[in-house]
Structures are given as C-alpha cells and as structure tokens.
Amino acid sequence: MTDTIAPTEQELLDQELARREKLERLRAAGIDPYPPRVERTHTAAEAIAAYREGQLGEEDVVKLTGRLVARRIMGKLTFAHIEDGSGRVQIMVRRDLLGAERYNEFFKKDIDLGDFVGVAGTMGVTRTGEVTCTVTDIQLLAKTLKPLPDKWHGLKDPELRQRQRYLDLLANPEVREVFRRRAAIVRALREYLDGEGFLEVETPILQPIYGGAAAEPFVTYHNYLHQQLYLRISFELYLKRLLVGGYERVYEIGRDFRNEGISHKHNPEFTQLEFYEAYTDYNGVMARTEEMLAYVAQKVMGSLKIPWGDEEIDFTPPWPRIPLRQAILDASGIDYEDYPDADSLRAVMRDKGLDAPADASRGKLIDKLLGHFVEPNLIQPTFLIDYPLDVSPLAKRKPGTRDTVERFEGFAGGMEICNAFSELNDPLDQLERFLAQRRDFDMGDKEAHPIDEDYVNALMYGLPPTGGFGMGIDRLTMLFCGQTNIREVILFPHLRPES
Q: What's the predicted TM-score (pTM) here?
C-alpha cells in the first residue's frame, strides 16, 4: 500500500471529511490529537549523525518528532519518513514491536500523511544502507485536517503559492532554501558593517513628516494625539540626525513602505539597508559597496561569481563607473544636456515613441530614459554616477556644475540595487531645495519631498562631510537566488484581493 498517488479534487474533499471523522474517533477514544507538549532528544539530522559517528548504540533510545511525509505500508511492516526542520529520517514501524491493535487501529487507520508525530525507538541501518529508526512507540502530535499538496506535481500556480506560502514551503523545498539564503544575506551584511565599526540603530516607522526618498507615503492617524502620521519611506533623515549628534557610522535594516504600484521589482512593503558614514563621499561609498557585496557573495555563495540565468554575475571589485549622461547617450542617442528644460526633452523623447508625461519634470524624464534604454542591459555590477539635481534633493552638488549632484546608483541583473550620494550638509541650500520640492508638490508631483524643518534645524548644528547609502534587501536576494520576481523572495508579498 502507498500514500503517494495524486488525488483528484473530489478525493481531496473526501480525504478532508475522512480526517475529520478520524479526529472525532481519536477524541472519543480519549486520545488528544493536539497534545500540549512532547519530548525530543534529537533532530532528524542529529540522530543520523550520532548513529553514523558511533555515538548511539543498538540499545540507545531516541525520541524524534516531525511531519509524516511518506509512507509505504507492507502488511505487518511499514517504512515511512518524518521530516523536521533539519531534514528527514526514515522510520520502520513493525506490528510485533508496536502491538497489533496500536499498529492496525491507530497507526494505519488514524494517522495520515501530513500529521505531526513523535516516535521513540533505536537507530540502525537497513539492508539498502539507509539510517533508520525502528519504532517502539508513536504519538500523534498534531492532526492535519487537509491533505498535503501532491508531492510529485508540487504547488506550481504562482498566485496560489504566494497567497498560501505555508503550502508553498511544504511542497517546494527549493522555496525554503530561498528564505534561508535571504537570512544568510542579512546576517552577512550585519557581520560586515559591525566589523567595520558601524552601529546598528532603530528609527521611527511612524513619522510626522515622511522623507528621504521620492515616493508617495501611506497615511495613518493617531487617535490619542489627534495627529496624522506616515509610514516611513526611508530612514535617511533620522539616521543623519544621529551623525549630527556625534555618531560617525550608523546603519539600519528594516521595513520601508511606499504607496506605489506593484511589479516584478516593486512591493509596497520592502526591506532596506541604509548606512551613513562621516568623513567620506560617494567615491568612498562606492568602494565600500564593492567591498561589502563581495564579502556577502563570498560568505553566502562561496564565490564572487553567482549564476544569473545563462550568465554569471561577477561581484569582484572594482565595478565600472559610468556617468549617467554618457550611459543614456550611448544607449539612446539622446544627450540630455542638449535639452535644458522638460519641454524640449519631452519633445525629443516623444519623437522616439517614448512615454513622456506632460507633467513630468526634466529629472523624471531622464529617469525614464535610464529605465528604458540603460537599466535592463546592466547585468554585471555597474555604478552610474552624477545625477540631475532635481531628482536628488538631499545630495551635494558636483563641484563645477549647476544641476548635477554627486550621486550614484548600483545596478546588477538588469535592475537598480542601491542608491547613494555625498550628503548635502549645507542647511541653507537644503532649505532652498525643500522649498523647490514644495512647489513641485503644489503643482501635482505627489512624490516631491516635504519640508522637514526639524531636519534643517539639525543641519544648523553641523553635519560632517558624509556619504550615505541605501539598498533593497529584496532585490539583492533576487540576485543571489536567481529570481526575477520580487514576490519570490518575500515570504508574504502584497497581492491584489482575490476576485
């Protein structure tokens, strides 16, 4: 007898009904199908390793727990596998050891695939060489009322997988590996920054004034204070306040929220790393970015070269540094310096059949050129440097220019993965830029930066020369896991309501 045949939809409904009947039968027999506690001496991996290393003898009893994921009943003998967080182990259940009634009535009839069980027994090896626990006792730990997804066909529908991530994780071990790797990436980033003398801090998620990025916020309300608040779109302005206060290197890893569209690269709730370092500029931050991501690649992947489709992404420093103006000119034939205002740039873009909204600023139009012509082709790690001032209100001007700032974005895998600049530390210049952003907001730009008077006040007390950096953890995880959709690296991504 086997429990591995894929059931039909009607069979699934019948199985659910049968499981509920078993649940009631167990309760009527005085068996708690959800007992409050269990004793475990080893994980599956620990038991196998201990036996192979000679630490368990033939008389040593182990107590294992896990989900019953496979079973092959052969009359008086059953081979099965239970799986816990460390892996799976084979168990052998014999009628003569368990007892006829407990074997036939409890184990065979009332325990199903997917149930959590605890077993006691001794470790040995079968004739096929598999380390196996010979069971002398078995306990039901949690009765499942729905059958598991078909193990052979898996769970393939992307929307169902992401809506019911618990089933996705159950059915697809490779998905579990994605999120283990994500955790390793975050751990490696912390190791690097901690080792470089950065202090990890926490800043407010609920903010009276949002800022630090060009994005529309989520709005909420504090009933007691009668105050409108915003979910943060960035950590930047609070982290730079800390440098005013005397810290020289700080970072934060946490959630940001942007009220924007959903795409293969965007989720309205995402994880960000930002760090700020005194006495450096965007050149120093570029060097640190290369060093940090090389460290993470080596730590997590064991190599500076990681697979990406049919190609390899090589994180070996140094990365190319290309002026944004040159990159767009080479890819599109448009030199945006020849078009000093939005209307003239819009006209040439429309001549090329590109979307150029009538209300877009010159900086936003340049960003559209970047996204259309340049970004998709930047597979290898690359820095684009020197950006328009009107889309970089917190960055320092490049010496000798009027409307260019010392800003870079890092790209890999055809997408932007980080953004950084030499931080503007002139409080009067910062106030002027905030006022210009307010005018843009009044003219309909919902992503324009609001005026943060307290931040300007902080700058009045002096911000040292500073380099700042922001990177999306989700996109970095996409690169390291070979994923092209951000929802594949977020455990519970935001999805449209089911119709």
A: 0.92
